[in-house]
Amino acid sequence: MSTLPPCPKCTSEYTYEDGVQLVCPECGHEWSADAPADAGDADKVYKDSVGNVLQDGDTVTVIKDLKVKGSSLVVKVGTKVKNIRLCDGDHDIDCKIDGIGAMKLKSEFVRKV
Ligand SMILES: [Zn+2]
User: Fold this and answer.
1) How far is the CA of 15 from the centre of ligand 1 (A)?
2) Whole-model pTM?
3) In 3-state terms, what secondary structure has residue 109?
4) Domain extents for the chain?
5) Among 46, 49, 45, which residue's Cα sits nearest to residue 108?
6) Boundaries of each Protein YjdM C-terminal domain copy (predicted)?
7) How far, in Å, CA of 104 to CA of 89, rounded?
8) Are 103 and 51 in contact (CB under 8 A)?
9) Positions of the chain with pLDDT under 70
10) Does domain 59-112 have CATH number 2.30.30.40?
C-alpha cells in the first residue's frame, strides 16, 4: 500500500518516490518528501518576547505600552495579564485585562511571569 501524499499541485494520487523527491506523473511536479505537506498550526509554538514557551492559562506582563485599538486606553508596560488564551492570528493572545476588558495581544510584546 502506498502512503504517499497526493500531488500538492493537481492532487493526483499517482505520485511516486524518486530518491528523496516525490514526483507526480500527471503534471510533472516534483517536491521534497521531507518537507511537511502542511506546516500545520497544530504544533505551533507560541513564544514570548524572550523565547519562553507560552501556554493557555499562563500569566504574562506587557513589556511596552500598547494602545488599545479603537479607544484611547493604553495597556501600560508592566501590566499583568492572567489566564491568557493562545489563538491563531497576527495577535495571538486572547486575554482580559482589568479595567480594559477582553483584548488581543501579540506574544512578542509580553513576557511570561
Ligand atoms: Zn500533479
Assistant:
1) 8
2) 0.61
3) helix
4) 1-40, 59-112
5) 49
6) 47-113
7) 10
8) no
9) 1-2, 34-43
10) yes
Q: Which three cell numbers stand for residue 42?
A: 497544530
Q: How far is the CA of 42 from the centre of ligand 1 (A)?
A: 26
Task: Give whole-number Cα distances, 53 to 10, 41, 86, 107, 112, in Å.
Answer: 37, 15, 11, 10, 8
In the beta sheet, which residues pair with residue 50? none
pLDDT at 58: 97
Cell 511571569 -> residue:
113
- Residues with CB in 5 Å of ion ligand 1: 7, 9-10, 12, 24, 26-27, 29
Class (C level, CATH) for 1-40 = mainly beta
Taking the centre of ligand 1 as the mean of its atom positions, its distance from the CA of residue 43, in whole angstroms, is: 28
Q: Residue 56: what pLDDT?
A: 96
Cell of 106: 501579540
Question: Residue 55: which of 6, 110, 101 has the closest Cα?
Answer: 110
